[in-house]
Each structure stands twice: as C-alpha cells, then as structure tokens.
Amino acid sequence: MRHLLVLAAGLVCTSVGLSYAATPVSAAGTKPPTGFSHVVVLWTKGAPGALGKDDADVPKLYVYPATGVGVHSAVIVLPGGGYRTLSMEREGGDEARWLSARGVTAFVLEYRLGSRYGFPAPMLDGARAVRYVRSHAKEMGVATDKIGLWGFSAGGHLAGYLATTHDAGNKGATDPVDQVSDRPDFAILSYARLSLDPAIPRKASLEALIGVHPTAAMLETLSPERHVTKDTPPCFLYSSTEDGVVNAMNSTKFYDALKRAGVPAELHIFERGRHGIGMAQGVHGMPELAVYPTLVANWMQLHGWMTSN
Q: Would you call 137 exposed, middle or buried from its count of C-beta atoms within 10 A (0-12, 13-18, 19+)?
C-alpha cells in the first residue's frame, strides 16, 4: 500500500512534495533534546532528496537506552510543531526520559521540515527510523516486534500516517535497513491531526507539509483515518475538548475507523487542556490532566510493551 500511495502522491506532488521547496530556504538547526546518550544519523550518505548537508538536512535519532538488563521494547517519539518546527523537549526529551526510566528504549526523531522540505520527506524519515531500529534491534537490545511510535500534533499526524501506510521491506535492497518492515507495532497519538476532512473545524491544514492548495488526491493520501485497515497496529489516542488547534474530532474519527477495522484501541478525551501540553504535568488549574502518563503506562503494560513497577 505504501508504494501505491507514494506513487500516486508523487504524480500530483510536483509542486508540493520534495520539490515543494524547490527554492531552498536557509537551513536552521533544531536544538536537540537533553539527556540522550548518542545520536544516530539515519542515512550516512545523505537522505533521499536532501537539499544540502546542514544539520536541518540530516534526519537523525537521539537515543535514550532503557534502564535494566534484557531485551526491551522501543518507542520512537515524534515531536510536533506543524511541520515547521520541532518541540524537541516538551514533546520529545520529556517522554524519552520517562520511557527509558521505565525499561523502554526511546528515540527522539528529528525529521525534515517545511518550508525547506514538504511531503514526502518527513514520511521517508519516519519510515526510515522504524526500519533502522528494527534492523539494529539486536545490537540495541530491542525486540523487533515491540517497536512503537509516540507522536504529538503534527508528529501525531506523522505517526498516524506511518501506522496506516507501511510495507514489509524490500528483501532485495542493498541497504540492509531497507530490507525490514517499517510497520510500527503500536502507536500513541497525542492531540494528533488524523483527518484532513474539511468538515472538521481547524485553524491550519498542514500547509508546511502540503502547500496552500493541495489536490484532493494529496488530502486523501495524507488523511490517516482514510487508510485504517485490520493491519493497522493498536493505538492509544489522547486529546481534549478545549484544544483549539487540533479538534478532538480527529481522534474520535480515527478511533471509529480503528473500531470498524477491529484494531485494538483506547481513547481518552479530557474536557480541559490546551494544545501542546506534552505529558500534561503541572498544568496550572488542571490537575486532572496529570494522570495522562499513567494511562499510557497502563495501556503499554496491558499489551506487554512496558513492565509494571
């Protein structure tokens, strides 16, 4: 399915995809999260469609090894930022350190951004991240069938896309990373943009990713709820009614699609809570939101992706 969708998108994307940023803007590096052990460059010889060799042209993983011995599950955290910036600490490092302390090897993905890069560059980076972790699982002490995603806002859109659009890998590829599947084994989707249905109220429509005037085919390709199947991995969804940036109807519509396809899913929508609150700790006047990490931990423990304390 991935190849068909990307091919179809490519046919309508000459002014939107990698060539959307045909006139490169100045590359500005993203400040990394704190507390990582080391950095992995996803393509040592340059990423597909790279427009240069600056830091912003190099997708990478910041690695947070799990505490404790044995083989661990893994989570790749995808920060939000509207495909324009990356919230590397609030929606990256905070979660990675929390996961590592609970026996889960974590990674924070720095993916390429508009307006320098549009579709499909972030999707290629996300797929490569899953393949990289899976192909290097043994040396990193990670289980090949316990590799998940945790995405926030636009990063949640990317996670939803990867959860619904994936393939088994190219067994004949010369690069061993490309030989393995990019299907995540589970996905956590925090206030994620999961539908491009114009009927859902919104403040923005991923312009940095797809341009101001995307075609109907592009909107179809990049609306994760339209591509849920029985092969979509289990998902945990979190949102709030108060969110004025990404309407909670994105989560409910995606949950409905998961339910129809028979995919295990859990949905939590809080009444209060602004957009972009990360793990929702210490939000003034809203103590009820602080339970969010506990809900994630309970769900991961239910499925065997995190051990109970």
A: buried
Domain assignment present for 242: yes
Residue 111 CA to residue 124 CA, distance in Å, equals: 9
Quick one: which of 104, 209, 190 has its CA closest to 146? 104
Q: Residue 30: inside a domain, yes or no?
A: no
Among 55, 53, 60, which Cα is nearest to 109's?
60
One digit per residue, the tens of pLDDT, for the chain of length 309 reads: 444 444 334 433 333 334 334 334 444 568 999 999 999 999 999 999 999 999 999 999 999 999 888 999 999 999 999 999 999 999 999 999 999 999 999 999 999 998 799 999 999 999 999 999 999 999 999 999 999 999 999 999 999 999 999 999 999 999 999 999 999 999 999 999 999 998 998 877 799 999 999 999 999 999 999 999 999 999 999 999 999 999 999 999 999 999 999 999 999 999 999 999 999 999 999 999 999 999 999 999 999 999 986
**Phi-psi label, residue 28: left if phi above 0, alpha if psi -120 to 50, beta otherwise:** beta
Domain count, the chain: 1
Question: Sheet holding 142-152: strands in order across?
Answer: 38-41, 60-64, 104-110, 72-78, 142-152, 186-190, 235-240, 265-270
At 64 the three-state DSSP class reads: strand
pTM, full prediction: 0.92
Residue 206: inside a domain, yes or no? yes
Host domain of residue 136: 2-22+35-303
**What's the CATH number where 268 sits?**
3.40.50.1820
Euclidean distance between CA atoms 223 and 207, whole angstroms: 14
DSSP structural state of residue 90:
I
